[in-house]
Amino acid sequence: MKPLILCACLAVLTSAHAAVQMPSVFTDHMVLQRDLPVPVWGKAAPGEEVTVEFAGQKKSAKADASGKWMVKLDPLKANAEPQVLKAGGVTIQDVLVGEVWLASGQSNMEWEMRMKPDSTADIPQANHPSLRLIEIPKTVALTPQDQVPAAWARCTPESVASFSAIGYYFGLRLQEELKVPVGIILSAWGGTRIEPWTSIEGFDAVPALEDFVKDTRSKLLGTDAYRAAQEKHIGDIEAWSKTARAALSQKQAVPQQPAQPTTLPANQVTPTSLYNAMIHPLVPYAFRGAIWYQGESNHNEGFGYTDKTKALLASWRSVFQQPDLPFYFVQIAPWQYGAEDVQILPQFWQAQRECLKIPNTGMATISDIGEVGDIHPAHKKEVARRLSLWALAKNYGHSEIDPNGPLYASHAVEGASIRVKFEHTGGGLASRDGKPLTQFEIAGRDGIFHAAEAKIDGDSVVLTSAAVPQPRRARFAWSKVAIHNLMNKEGLTATAFHTHWPVDPDLGDNLARDCTWESSDKNTYGWDTGLTDGSLLEAPPNCYATSDSAKFPKHVTIDLKKAQAINLVRVSAPSVGSTKTVAVSVSTDGKTFREVGKHTFTLGKAETAGLTFPDAEARYLRITYVDRYDQLAGQFPNTFAFTTEVEAYRTK
Asked: Of 47, 52, 522, 598, which one's alpha carbon is 20 to 30 angstroms from that of 178?
């Protein structure tokens, strides 16, 4: 009988051990984070005691009623010698201890080593036994998940070829500098926005996103708000059904059925979907910090992105129980973005710079190595190096490193010049190619910018332009395609800036914004939308426009809502059409107009004119298209008149 009893006991033990499961982030070849408590967790039979053994430590925990268990190993010292991690009946081989980083974002973070010639050339030499890699597969979920299929691998030419180039180069740089094992967890998906990578609780943590998160909750499966919205809809349907039956019985029309509330789909666009499926399964893995390359898909929303970055960090820092989790991100590169206004991307760059105010963040600026014709610039090794400077300086004791490039600090008008002072100039400011500095512009009271001559003077750049004898403001690299040459002598590039954006204290409010207007010759093609929104986008419908009648002059009259003093009108003409001379007039009664300025535009060139004049009382502002060019621009008949923007100000 005893042999049978023994066999039965072994069967019970085997069954118990077989119930022990660990998340897929625990596999052979993994790296555990040094010098921090290390959570080890998984599932087992409810009430089962699970013992974890590693590096001389032995700790136990009982699975709760749902089968979940977790222990925390005491902080470990770095160790490049393979060790064994045991948890119940699970054995994990070849475990190293060192530094672990999460690499996340969209396609530029995901971009594989084999996809560009300069990184492809490094693949054959990529045998690094102490560098380990794991890639989280692309998947989505509407609720937080505990598992995702993935496995760690040693860094070899075979494993690295399809791995993130930035992740690899960043990890290799740390491994070579620190002389300890490094693990990189890649969780990235091309074309994704920041919202899917953020938990709903992260959005809750940012008051400015209250309306966004309220709307999201009402559409997100599993939330109380979603349930309430759907229950209300069911009630509405029941009431509608009674009303519909009554209408039919009386031979009347049945009212329209109430529309069902929206349910967000399970895809990579839906807020929280990637956090749930590709971040939450890692929780609460111990790692040092995160690197982030994302923003192209959010680039047109300005400072709204700053708030969403705050939400992302609130999300990650909470669930990984690291309130000071380092987060180093890439300021996205210049790119064409189709016909989009050239200022939209620079405004987004300022939103990214604003993220530096979030504690324990850092920004790698890469405008000098962007490629206007390619949204995926090739120089991933240099991007990774600049990210690694932040980690080395802020997390690994290299206080001699300043990871910032030159950042705008202040400006001052000095007669006919403007002095722009920079911080983080390192060993001094320099021109990357030895040529005169590029992409600097200055403007006077009218706010119209002209190219400036720029000269380095210590930690400043002094700007002048013959076209602006009385400068008031400056901007630098303020275009989506701006690739400039200002850097510090350590080779780190300067960041774009605008001294008078987003607030222009000289101009004040645009008094023509959101005002109604009338055209003397109404346009019926859908272009005459009268947008005074700061955008110079030429594609319709984004302008004031007249019909194609041959009659000239023509005019557009804007109602400023009330009589008020103005002294500056800015008028912009597109590169298409044959707009020539434009006159600006003002009136208090809409009947008698007084001309206050005139400008002749260049054919085929997008151009803005600033017409300044003494304070004039105006309720109505008239833009008169005095004449036209005989030649055509953009193949539009020369009988149309176009202006992409009309703005009215009372400057100080």
From this structure: 52
Ranges of beta strands (E only) in 211-367 are 289-293, 327-331, 361-365
Q: Tell me the domain boundaries of the chain.
A: 97-214+263-403, 222-258, 407-498, 516-649
The token pair at 179 is 């002389």
Average pLDDT for the chain = 93
Contact between 210 and 315 under an 8 Å Cβ cutoff? The reply is no
Indicate the SS3 state at residue 437. coil
Residue 225: C-alpha distances to residues 132, 167, 216, 219, 315 (Å): 42, 38, 9, 8, 20
CATH superfamily name and code, 97-214+263-403: SGNH hydrolase (3.40.50.1110)
Quick one: which H or E segment has residue 247? helix 224-249
Contacts 24+ apart (CB under 8 A), 78-81: 78/34, 78/180, 78/181, 79/55, 79/181, 80/130, 80/180, 80/181
Q: Measured in Å, how far apart are the chain's first and last C-alpha atoms? A: 102
Contacts with 538 (C-beta within 8 Å, 6 or more apart), sequence order: 339, 574, 575, 576, 606, 644
Q: How far apart are CA 222 and CA 184, in angstroms?
A: 32
Closest by alpha carbon to 285, among 165, 428, 150?
150
- CA 148 – CA 463 distance, rounded (Å): 55
pLDDT over threshold 60, residue 73: yes
Q: Answer yes or no: is pLDDT of 29 > 50.
A: yes
Which neighbouring-strand residues pair with 183?
A: 100, 132
Tokens at residue 533, please?
């929104």
C-alpha to C-alpha distances, 584 to 512, 556, 571, 605, 625, nearest whole angstrom? 13, 10, 9, 20, 9
Report d(CA 319, CA 302) in Å as an integer: 27
**15 pLDDT band (50/70/90 cuts)?**
very low
Distance CA(416)–CA(464), nearest Å, equals 7
59, pLDDT greater than 70:
yes
How far is Cα 385 from Cα 172, in angstroms, rounded to an integer? 10
For 288-303, how does the pLDDT look when each residue is reduced to its tens digit (9 = 90+)? 999 999 999 999 889 9
Architecture of the 516-649 domain: Sandwich (2.60)
What whole-number distance in Å separates Cα of residue 242 and Cα of residue 363? 60
Tokens read off for 611: 């017409």
